[in-house]
Design a protein that fits this description.
It is built from 12 helices and 16 strands. The protein has helices at 2-22, 30-33, 39-62, 64-89, 95-118, 125-134, 147-169, 174-197, 228-233, 237-254, 258-261, 293-302, and strands spanning 308-312, 315-319, 327-329, 337-341, 344-354, 356-360, 363-372, 375-379, 382-388, 394-398, 401-406, 415-419, 422-429, 435-439, 444-448, 453-457. Mean pLDDT is 80; it is low at 20-35, 215-242 and 282-303. Residues 204-245 are annotated as: Disordered.
Length: 462
C-alpha cells in the first residue's frame, strides 16, 4: 500500500509537469509556450517525488487523522508548485497581485492548522501538531531576504512534537519512526533547494510578461485596470471562494470592517503562523514574529469555550480555566496523565503519583504536584510557576517566557531541559526552609576544540 501511494504521488507530479507544459495562459511566458519546465521547477518536482511522496505513502499507511491531514498537505505542495511555475515564466508582479497568487496556498495552510485544533483528542495528536507547527515553512515564497533560515526555524518548531512521536513509537511501531524521518527530510531538502535556487527570495523570470492573477489564483481586482468586476464574473464557481477570501484580506489591509473580517481569519493566522499573509501588507518586517506572540494571539477565542476539568480515559483534561484558583486533582493513579490547555490566572494541584503532566498554552498558571514518574512538560506558556512537592525525573520547558520551578529536597537531581525559552529560574530549598533562586542560562558560547564543537553557558555579571 505504501509503495502504491508513493507511485500515485509520482504520477501526480508527472501530470503536473504535463499541465504546466500545455498551459498557454495566465502568466505563461516563452518557457511555458515552448513546453519547457524551468530548472528550479524540475528540482522542486524531485522534492515532491522524493521525501514528500515518502511522507504521503507513510501517512496513508498509518491512516486515520494523519492520512486526512496529509490530503491537505498534498494540496499545499501542489499549489506551491503552481506558484513556482508562474514565477519561472513571469516577472514579479505588484504586491496586490502577489497577494492574490499566494492566497490559495495561504488558505490551505490555515486549513492544515485548523485540522489540528479540531482534533485535539486524536490519538495521533502529536503527528498533527508536528505538521501544524511547521507547515508555515511553505510561506518561504513570501520571505526575503532569508527564506532558508525561516524554513529551518519552522522545522525546529516541529521538533518538540516529532520527538514525542519518536518517544511513543520507538519501541512499538517503526513505521511512525520512518514517518518522522520522511517528514523532517522534506524541510531539510527544501532548505537545500532554496539555497540553490532562491537564496534571497523567490526567483522570478526577467524576460516573461508580468505575472497576473487571471491564470492562477483568483484575486480582488488591482486598483488600476478597468473593468475588474467583469473579469471576476467570468471566473469559475471554484474560484469565487478564493476571490472573496482575498477581498476580505484587502478590507483588513484598509483597516475597515476589521471585526467582520476576523470572523473568517484569526489574528494568529495573519502573522507568525502564516507568513504568506504578510505579503499583502506592503512594507511589513520580513522576519516572523517571535514565538511569544503566538499564545497571546490564540488565547482570545478560547475564552468563549466552557472550562473543563474531567477524566477522559487515562487523561485528566484541564482546559479553558480562567481565574480558577483551587483546582485540585486528587483521585489519581500511576498510569494517568494530566493535560492542562489554555488555563489562565489559575492554580492547579495534583495529588498522588501519576505518569506525566503537560502545560500547554497557559498563562499565569501555578502548578503544584507531588510525584511524577515520567516528565513534566511546559510548552508555549507565559509566566507560570511549577512546584515539586515529591519527586520528578525530568522537567521540559519549550517556547515559554517566564517559568519558575520550585524543587523539593527529594527532586534536586531532576533534569531540566529547555529550548527557545526565556526568564527561567530554578528555586532550590535551603536548610532553613527558604528558597535560593538561580537563573537558567539563556546565552551560550560555542567553540571548535579541534575535533568537535564544545558549547558552554555564559555567565553575565550584573
Amino acid at each position: 500500500m505504501a509503495e502504491l501511494a508513493g507511485l500515485v504521488q509520482r504520477l501526480e507530479v508527472a501530470v503536473g509537469r504535463l499541465e504546466a507544459m500545455s498551459s498557454s495562459g495566465g502568466g505563461g511566458g516563452p518557457a511555458a509556450a515552448s513546453g519547457v519546465v524551468s530548472v528550479y521547477v524540475e528540482a522542486y518536482d524531485n522534492l515532491l517525488s522524493g521525501p514528500v511522496a515518502q511522507y504521503t505513502a507513510l501517512s496513508q499507511k498509518i491512516g486515520g487523522d494523519v492520512q486526512k491531514h496529509n490530503e491537505l498537505m498534498k494540496q499545499a505542495f501542489s499549489l506551491q508548485r503552481q506558484l513556482l511555475v508562474t514565477a519561472s515564466n513571469s516577472q514579479k508582479p505588484s504586491d496586490s497581485v502577489l497577494t492574490s497568487l499566494l492566497a490559495p496556498m495561504s488558505k490551505v495552510i490555515q486549513e492544515v492548522q485548523a485540522f489540528r485544533e479540531k482534533n485535539r483528542s486524536s490519538p495521533l495528536f502529536n503527528h498533527l501538531s508536528a505538521v501544524s507547527e511547521s507547515v508555515p515553512a511553505l510561506g518561504w515564497v513570501a520571505m526575503a531576504p532569508k527564506p532558508g533560515p525561516y524554513v529551518k526555524e519552522m522545522q525546529d518548531a516541529a521538533m518538540f512534537y516529532t520527538n514525542r512521536v519518536l518517544k511513543d513509537y520507538k519501541e512499538k511501531d517503526k513505521m511512525h519512526v520512518e514517518w518522522v524521518s520522511a517528514y523532517v527530510s522534506i524541510w531539510t531538502e527544501l532548505q537545500a533547494y532554496i539555497k540553490q535556487h532562491h537564496t534571497t527570495g523567490l526567483s522570478w523570470s526577467q524576460t516573461g510578461p508580468v505575472a497576473s492573477a487571471s491564470g492562477g489564483a483568483p484575486a480582488p481586482p488591482p486598483p488600476g485596470p478597468p473593468p475588474p468586476p467583469m473579469d471576476l464574473g467570468k471566473s469559475s464557481g471554484g474560484d469565487s471562494g478564493a476571490t472573496n477570501h482575498n477581498a476580505l484580506f484587502a478590507s483588513i489591509n484598509k483597516g475597515a470592517d476589521i471585526t467582520k473580517g476576523l470572523k473568517h481569519v484569526s489574528d494568529n493566522q495573519k502573522t507568525h503562523k502564516n507568513p504568506v499573509l504578510k505579503a499583502q501588507g506592503g512594507p511589513l518586517p520580513s522576519g516572523p514574529k517571535p514565538f511569544a506572540a503566538w499564545p497571546t494571539a490564540a488565547a482570545s477565542p478560547a475564552r468563549t469555550l466552557p472550562p473543563v476539568l474531567e477524566l477522559d480515559g487515562k487523561k485528566w483534561k484541564v482546559e479553558n480555566q480562567e481565574g480558577a484558583h483551587g483546582l485540585v486533582i486528587s483521585d489519581t493513579e500511576l498510569k494517568q496523565v494530566v493535560y492542562a490547555f489554555k488555563c489562565n490566572n489559575s492554580t492547579l494541584q495534583v495529588k498522588g503519583k501519576i505518569n506525566s503532566i503537560t502545560l500547554d498554552n497557559c498563562k499565569k498558571l501555578g502548578l503544584v504536584f507531588e510525584d511524577v514518574v515520567g516528565i513534566v512538560e511546559v510548552i508555549n506558556c507565559k509566566d507560570v510557576k511549577v512546584q515539586v512537592m515529591g519527586k520528578v525525573p525530568t522537567i521540559s520547558i519549550n517556547k515559554t517566557d517566564g517559568c519558575h520551578v520550585y524543587l523539593s529536597k527529594d527532586s534536586l537531581s531532576c533534569e531540566i531541559v529547555s529550548a527557545k525559552s526565556s526568564e527561567m529560574n530554578v528555586l532550590v530549598p535551603n536548610k532553613d526552609g527558604e528558597y535560593t533562586e538561580i537563573p537558567v542560562p539563556e546565552q551560550f558560547k560555542t567553540v571548535w576544540d579541534g575535533s568537535k564543537l564544545v558549547t558552554t553557558a555564559t555567565e553575565i555579571a550584573g
